[in-house]
Amino acid sequence: MDIIRYRNDVWGEEVILGVSWDLLWVIAITAFLLLAAHAIFMAALAKKKAMPSAAGKRVHRHDAIDRAFHWIMAGSVLILIFTGIAPIIGIRFSWLNIHWIAGLVLSFVCIFHTIRALFWQDFKSMLMGPSDFKEPFDESIKPGKYSFEQKGMHWAMTVLVVAVIATGITLLLHIDTPWWDRPSVDDEGTLGIWFLLHGTATLGLIAFTAIHIYFALRPEKRFYTRSMVKGWISEDEFKENHDTNKWKQD
Amino acid sequence: MSSHDVMPEMSLYQPVRVEDAIGIANQFADRGWLVGGGQDTYGWLKDRAKSADALIDLKGIESMRGVKETADGIEIGALVTLTEITKDPIIAQRYPLLAQAAGRVASPQIRNVGTIAGNVSQDVRCWYYRRGLNCYRAGGNLCYADTPEGMNREHAIFNASRCVAVTPSDTGPALVALEAQMVINNASGQRVVSAEEFFVGPNLDIQNTTVLRPGDILTAVRIPSKWANAQFYFEKVADRNAWDFALVSLSAVMRVNNGVIEDSRIVAGAVQATPRRLTEVEQAVRGKARNDSTADSIGDLASRTANPLNYNHFKMPLMDNLVKRALRGQA
Fold first, then answer.
1. Are the C-beta atoms of residues B262 and B286 closer than 8 Å to each other?
2. Contact criterion met (CB below 8 Å) for B271 and B158
3. Strands (E), A72-203
């Protein structure tokens, strides 16, 4: 199994072509096995707790605009993954334009989210401090608005999405679009490194997207998914899973 | 790239039955190379730009030879040579479009050994790709032809998607115009695809020009009787009149009644990676007289959405003029 693909450039020198797509199967199988193991562990061994009621007073968690951002971002990431991977696994369709248009949508939505998070939201609630790392090991510690896992997922996705956007835009500059024609490539090795980084970030994004979807569908976490659709969690869910002193209502 | 006088070392299989050929093709998958006339194959192999573990020579399969009449038209064996197509009395009488197209392929020597299956299945002729450079079509990250300095006079003016090479086939556009069906056999059985769907562009599959996959064998081409004895027009423009690929070619079939075009299929070659049906032109000429006036009013539709490269803008008026000549009914 290869990690990196190599080719000869126009001068006959060996240069990097990109990440080896053998790793796609490694990522897919590893993610599947880990998530299946987690599901089995949770079903068989984890302590069963009564789920808090969704009825009663509601606690606001996400504004409509933030929910819209999340779902547009989710849709564009899924489209990007599908259009990027499908041709590699033999599903043939006209993918390129869909891919870069979805990439531009993701870029604009991320810029919007960054500005909004910095100036109009409680940015500190997403920051991770030393105390957050105690949370998974001590059941008595409850999080504020976002748990340790949620913050970790957010920052992992941030790094990966920024990486795919930065490398993707660089690659976009090398193809024909309605706004510019493809330029000459002076150094195929450098282009190959961009492809390598784009591919590597994509593999990470696939793994974390799978993990994110898995936890979004788990019964004990499903109220968070509901809050990303409807904007609220119940007061019972709030008290059961969060420290009411740490989560400042907006 | 070094050029060699001798073939690289590889196994040679010479099956005499389609079933055996399919078995061998299946066994070697993408390391097996089907060969009929070999006019595309030997260049690749002798230049060492592509390689195979096994050469599967189909020429001994008698069932893939000959032109047969069927209940709805004719069936041309995949190994029928281009010369045989030009001389076949049924094709000459009912489908002279195909005979003319086959007669303009390359040179008499090449037509004597080149087959109909090879002509439609041959790889693109972009010289960067043929030289063995690792362009998009060869699995790489870029196109050498579509750059500010790239030599792209012969390349695509429509539907380029990373790769800008064009179909080199002269018979392909004629078969699309005639609504031909391609008979493909493999280990799973037989499937029949229309000529229009047989060719694939780089937007769908950048490394293949047809739907054929390892293990597939194109065994026959069927032409339905729908367009038999219709009015035909074929013209190929190339830098040389012999042994050259088209800069633009045009294949047209028309059903004309009392001078009025009732139905038509007009297909251009060498303007994109697949034969290009000019559906806008076909719709525009329906119900119109086949004359100068129609030609002048509609001819420019053909190239309207073209997106030429640096050195092939000339293909746009060339294509329009071929359409006009087809609509006038004169070469």
1. yes
2. yes
3. none
What is the reported pLDDT for A123? 86
Nearest to B142 among A93, A94, A174 (CB): A174
Question: Do the chains contact at B139 and A10, CB–CB below 8 Å?
Answer: no
Tell me how far CA of residue B329 lies from CA of B135, B233, B247, B265, B291, in angstroms: 41, 7, 21, 14, 7
Answer yes or no: do B205 and A8 touch at CB < 8 A: no
Give dist(CA B273, CA B276) in Å, integer.
8
Q: Which of the pair, B61 or A126, is modelled with greater confidence?
A: B61
Is A51's Cβ below 8 Å from some Cβ in B? no
Domain-by-domain residue ranges, chain A? 64-241
First-to-last C-alpha distance (Å) of chain B? 41
- Determine contact, residues B328/B292, Cβ cutoff 8 Å: yes
Q: What are the percentages of helix, strand and coil residues in chain A, rounded to 5? A: 60, 5, 30
Check B147 against A184: CB less than 8 A apart.
yes
From B162, B203, B204, residue closest to A175, measured CB to CB: B162
Q: Does A8 touch chain B (CB under 8 A)?
A: yes
pLDDT tens per residue, range B120-170: 999 999 999 999 999 999 999 999 999 988 999 999 999 999 999 999 999
Which of B243, B272, B83, B93 lies closest to B173, judged by CA?
A: B272
Token pair belonging to B160 = 């380029």
Q: Across the interface, do A191 and B139 touch by the CB < 8 Å criterion?
A: no
Looking at domain B231-328, which CATH architecture does it have?
2-Layer Sandwich (3.30)
ipTM for the predicted complex comes to 0.85
Cβ contacts of B105 within 8 Å, gap of 6 or more: B82, B111, B114, B119, B170, B171
pLDDT tens-digit series, residues B35-92? 999 999 999 998 888 999 999 999 999 999 999 999 999 999 999 999 999 999 999 9
Res B48: pLDDT: 86
Task: Say if residues B181 and A68 touch (Cβ distance below 8 Å).
Answer: no
pLDDT level of residue A46 (50, 70, 90 thresholds): confident
Query: Cβ separation of A17 and B162 shorter than 8 Å?
Result: no
Confirm if A234 and A52 have CB atoms less than 8 A apart.
Answer: yes
Polymer length of chain B: 331
**Residue spans per domain, chain B:** 11-60, 64-121+166-226, 231-328
Q: Which amino acid is at B93?
A: Q
What is A64-241's CATH superfamily? Answer: Transmembrane di-heme cytochromes, Chain C (1.20.950.20)
**3-class secondary-structure state, position B222:** strand
